[in-house]
Amino acid sequence: MRTLALTAPSAAADAAPGDRALIVLLPGRGDAPEDLVARGMVDMVRARGIAADVVVVDAHVGYYRSRQAVERLLADVIAPARARGYRSIWLAGISLGGFGALLYGARYGATDPIDGVFAIAPYLGRGDDLPAEIRAAGGLPAWDGAASADDDYARLVFAWLRGFGDPGEPRPQLWLGVGADDRFAERIRLVAPLLPADHFIEVPGGHTWQPWLRIWGTMLDQAPLPRVAVTATAVSAAR
To answer: What is the pTM of this model?
Structure first.
């Protein structure tokens, strides 16, 4: 996978990788890594003084169609980062990229655990059958479904998300966000009862950049990422 690697704020840049976090950004369908940078997602990390390097991954739709997205993410990005000494790794994605971040957790969370996931307006499958099945069961906490096949990715992700309702099951920290008028909002709301109230962020807007960036800023403000001091002016400029 092609990547763009960007360093932490200058105050933390000299620290060893083990003392910094790594945020792996996954774009939505049709976006390239450069688009996420141009929209200010990396600047928002830096302005908050978050001591994290950022890798923006060109995880385009072709990887998902060939069912190689999370496999390549592990082999090409996560495993090499572990080898370089990063101990704290967070995945963040928008739309299709949000689905990829959740799918990585579902596929590899038990064997290669990550610290956290930021899923912004994640795609969670097509069609109404699976959401209707979950609602008919009384919601995701009561749903007894499981992945019926390895390639049933939406069901696999929902089965993994259901585990956030069991305190005995290890899970990364999860922040989930969506615009109130987003076309994916109804199925994303199915997950909300399993998360701490401040980990589910709903803002005005649809499936567009304005709500996505607002959600991203809130997630960055809340997450327990390592930080260095920055000026209030820098933070305000990136919001």
So the answer is: 0.90
Burial of 55 (0-12, 13-18, 19+ CB in 10 A): buried
- Annotated domain spans of the chain: 3-124+171-223
The angle subtended at Cα 223 by Cα 220 and Cα 227, nearest 5°, is: 80
Measured CA to CA, the distance from residue 21 to residue 197 in angstroms comes to: 25
User: Which CATH number applies to 3-124+171-223?
Assistant: 3.40.50.1820
Task: Give the CB-side neighbour count of residue 80, counting CA atoms within 13 A.
Answer: 10
pLDDT tens digits, one per residue of 176-214: 999 999 999 999 999 999 999 999 999 999 999 999 999
Nearest to 73 by CA among 109, 37, 41, 30: 109
Strands 21-26, 3-6: pairing is: unpaired
Helix (H) or strand (E) holding 90: strand 88-94
